[in-house]
């Protein structure tokens, strides 16, 4: 038996197979994904989606399709829907940042966004900050590169 992993202690504050437990209102004990497992998930997504690569966005999402559904299936017993929504948003945010990085220049960003139906003001504002990939991909770009766009790219959903 591994003494570092084994203990006689309260279920709260301990992790078991990637799950942690918490008390919901009303005194009901519920399961959630442990913080360490969420960090490992994000680290693995960062490995699968490097921003400096010659791959197309479809190739990047293809790599995610081999990992995300399995992770979701393993942690399907978690009773925290907000965590699933936040992770799903974070992965899509990452994909939008990769897309901006691939478009590179402000002119290209403006052209591509207007072709996708963005208003000229939105496209101009995003293109004006063309080197701020992460910041741009979390604000105005949500209205253009939507969940539907991520679905078309083949991104598996968590939520």
Question: Could you give the topology of this structure?
Answer:
Layout (H helix, E strand, L loop, with lengths): L18 E5 L5 E5 L1 H14 L8 H9 L2 H7 L6 H23 L2 H10 L4 H9 L4 H4 L10 H7 L6
Antiparallel strand pairs: 1-2
Helix pairs in contact: 5-6
**Approximate helicity band:** 40-55%
What share of residues are in beta strands? 5-15%
Gross morphology is elongated
Number of domains: 1
Low-confidence stretches: none
- Estimated structural class: mainly alpha
**What's the arrangement of strands in the largest beta sheet?**
1-2
Q: How many beta-strand elements?
A: 2
What summary fits the major beta sheet?
A: 2 strands, antiparallel
Report the end-to-end length measured between terminal Cα atoms: 37 Å
Based on CA atoms alone, the radius of gyration comes out at 19 Å
Listing every helix as H and every strand as E from the N terminus to the C terminus, the arrangement reads: EEHHHHHHHH
Alpha plus pi helix count: 8
**Mean pLDDT, all residues:** 88
Pfam families: GIIM
Protein name: Group II intron maturase-specific domain-containing protein
Domain Group II intron maturase-specific: 38-107
């Amino acid at each position: 038996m591994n003494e570092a992993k084994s203990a006689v202690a309260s279920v709260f504050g301990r992790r078991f197979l990637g799950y942690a437990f918490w008390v919901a209102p009303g005194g009901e004990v519920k399961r959630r994904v442990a913080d360490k497992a969420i960090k490992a998930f994000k680290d693995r997504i960062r490995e699968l989606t490097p921003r400096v690569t010659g791959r197309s966005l479809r190739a990047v999402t293809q790599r995610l399709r081999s990992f995300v559904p399995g992770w979701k299936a393993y942690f399907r017993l978690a009773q925290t829907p907000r965590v699933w929504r936040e992770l799903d948003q974070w992965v899509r945010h990452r994909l939008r940042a990769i897309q901006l990085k691939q478009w590179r220049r402000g002119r290209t960003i403006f052209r591509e966004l207007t072709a996708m139906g963005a208003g000229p003001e939105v496209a101009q504002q995003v293109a004006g900050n063309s080197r701020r990939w992460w910041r741009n991909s979390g604000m105005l770009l949500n209205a253009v590169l939507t969940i539907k766009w991520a679905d078309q790219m083949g991104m598996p959903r968590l939520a």
